[in-house]
Amino acid sequence: MLVGAFACAHTPQLLARPSTEDRELVLRVHAAFARVKRRLETLRADAIAIVAGDHVEAFFLDGVPALAVYVGTECAGTFGRYRYRFAIHEPLARAIVEQGVERGFDLFYTQHAPLDYAFYVPLHFTMPEPAVPILPLHVNVYLPPQPTPRRCYEWGRALGEILRARPERIALMASGGMSHFPGTDRYASPEFEYDRRVLESLKAGRGRELAAITGEELDKMGNIELRTWATVLGAVGDVKADVYCYEPSWHHGNAVVEWPV
Amino acid sequence: MDEQPHYRFPPASAYRLNRCLFALKSDDAFRARFLQDARGAMSELELDAEDAAALLRGDRDALLALGAHPYLVFMADLRLRMEREPVSFEFF
Questions:
Q1: Which end of chain A, N or C, is less surrounded by CB atoms within 10 Å?
Q2: Do B6 and A57 touch (CB under 8 A)?
Q3: ipTM of the predicted structure?
Q4: What angle do CA B13, B15, B16 make, to 5 degrees?
Q5: CB B26 to CB A183 under 8 A?
């Protein structure tokens, strides 16, 4: 069953803060992460299904999956000085890939691929105690052509049905967003007003609007990672978002959100 | 106003350049070799002269014009700077 749904920023500066970053802002985002952690403990989640976009870490141009499922027994990765490793909920992973394919989603799967920091950063801060296994689900956000927001939403709807039919208590988490433009001229000028409009729409329970946004618009608004949110919204439907925080830094709109399920 | 998307399809002509940026981002051993001997490391990955020159200059605009992926340019540069001039981080 699905017991909770969240979205968490994964800005690496939240993990390793250089002097360019406002410490108080970073701590406010950490406080929102701590709320997610407490919620995951209260919800007694058995597993966290986390939807993130690999940042060209597991999947380089040698093979670019649109949607992928990590189905090994565990997964690990590094980011700077951080070394991390998580157990994968293997029966759940296998059920998702098998039933996803059965439902018409031609999923890529891997039993061994490095886990990108996009998965790690939210888990570093929100993993309940004791730790639970995870289920990493990749959505291609950085290597065009990416899946359309509508496709992500539809995949999320199928994913939600699969998760709801399972005996485990599963929390679903999107990692990513909001507006940021790494490596471009726009790095220091994200589209914060756009972020706020998206959050207002989500607070009003109009999640399906995200499915109608074009990939072109997401790129223009620095929000290519909202594909992970669209996936979670497909699973939860038009429920009203509880925005734990929205903290725009000089280069990134950091949001933490929960949806009732 | 630039109507090009921020993140474009990476042209096949830039495969080697992107592979080198990917290695600088994610492969600690390669990054260490690059810091010791940039030209040697780039020739390992068969970069052509134009790509190598742009990378040596750290010229983002030239790299992007050659087809480099903006995120890879960004993170390769960040990882190199972290090695060259370790800034102080607060680790959480």
A1: N
A2: no
A3: 0.94
A4: 105
A5: no
